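Is this the right way to post structure tokens for a design question? Let me know if I should format differently. Anyway, here goes:
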């Protein structure tokens, strides 16, 4: 699910492009009146598929970026109050990371080390849980676009944006991305992220207000139960962020979560799953994304999902999807290819 606020500006944009808003909404099972209540919930699968369909049918390859240009922090509703009242970017990110599930349980943001290894740079990562719905290039560009606008508005030019990372290949002319982000964009990357100078995270926000922030966060904590408290969700997040850099062994994940491997096994069993099942699920989602939304060589895809040999990827893809990796790529051609 995702809050209807994510579609702010969708109806007028579709109309401007000559499309039929009501027909699109009806086709994807979204009631028109839901758009009038930004706190209303809609299926994220329907949301994402509608964006991709609208972009294709209306020949608007940058639809996600256009929507992002008309959105701001306000689409996060009550969460926006807590973020804006935070004293620094680190505090704002902590708040957003903790409560992003209020906007959509499928979306998450995090702060991590630079994927290129620069000690003076950090990665602000934006992810979608692909168990909720298939990967959507337009929805990803909408999300990372809004994330960029919010970061720029809160931190200003002090953010020192180095590059933007996108998981898929360009679906618009590269110049469009340069105009939007005012920075170089890297495509076919493991995750969507903004690479910013680490020093920017300590910049003090002019809108900081500790009392308002505390009240807003207390309200969010009281009103909403956090699904990320499930150990399986934590394992899934740890694996998704480290498949391409660390061997996907339970001992390594347990170390990341500061828990003993046997304790981790017991907690996963209590939730009705196993480490192997979670790993298989994460690999399946990642493999499908890399195969169908990038043109990366299959040997490289194998390494990025934690397989030592390409043959292991081939066997797994056939088990998951009933076809070979090349057949899957042909069945779901790379967008923009």
């Amino acid at each position: 699910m995702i809050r209807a606020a994510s579609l702010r500006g969708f109806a007028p944009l579709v109309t401007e492009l000559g499309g039929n808003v009501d027909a699109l909404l009806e086709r994807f099972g979204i009631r028109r009146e839901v758009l009038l209540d930004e706190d209303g919930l809609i299926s994220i699968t329907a949301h994402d598929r509608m964006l991709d369909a609208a972009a294709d049918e209306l020949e608007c390859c940058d639809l996600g970026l256009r929507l992002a240009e008309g959105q701001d922090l306000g689409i996060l509703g009550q969460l926006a109050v807590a973020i804006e009242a935070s004293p620094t970017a680190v505090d704002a990110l902590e708040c957003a990371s903790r409560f992003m599930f209020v906007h959509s349980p499928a979306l998450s943001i995090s702060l991590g080390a630079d994927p290129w290894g620069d000690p003076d740079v950090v990665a602000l990562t934006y992810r979608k849980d692909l168990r909720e719905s298939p990967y959507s290039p337009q929805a990803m560009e909408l999300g990372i676009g809004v994330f960029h606008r919010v970061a720029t508005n809160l931190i200003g030019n002090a953010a020192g944006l180095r590059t933007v990372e996108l998981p898929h290949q360009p679906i618009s002319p590269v110049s469009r991305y340069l105009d939007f982000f005012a920075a170089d964009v890297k495509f076919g990357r493991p995750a969507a992220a903004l690479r910013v100078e680490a020093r920017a995270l300590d910049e003090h926000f002019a809108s900081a207000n500790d009392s308002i922030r505390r009240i807003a966060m207390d309200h969010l904590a009281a009103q909403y139960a956090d699904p990320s408290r499930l150990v399986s969700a934590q394992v899934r997040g740890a694996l998704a962020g480290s498949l391409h850099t660390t061997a996907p062994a339970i001992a390594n994940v347990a170390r990341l979560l500061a828990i003993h491997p046997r304790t981790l096994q017991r907690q996963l069993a209590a939730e009705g799953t196993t480490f192997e099942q979670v790993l298989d699920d994460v690999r399946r989602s990642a493999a499908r994304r890399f195969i169908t939304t990038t043109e990366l060589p299959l040997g490289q895809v194998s390494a990025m999902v934690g397989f030592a040999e390409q043959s292991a990827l081939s066997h797994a893809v056939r088990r998951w999807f009933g076809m070979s990796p090349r057949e899957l790529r042909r069945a779901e051609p790379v967008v923009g290819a």
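Format looks fine. Someone answered above. Worth noting: The longest helix spans residues 137-155. The mean pLDDT is 90.
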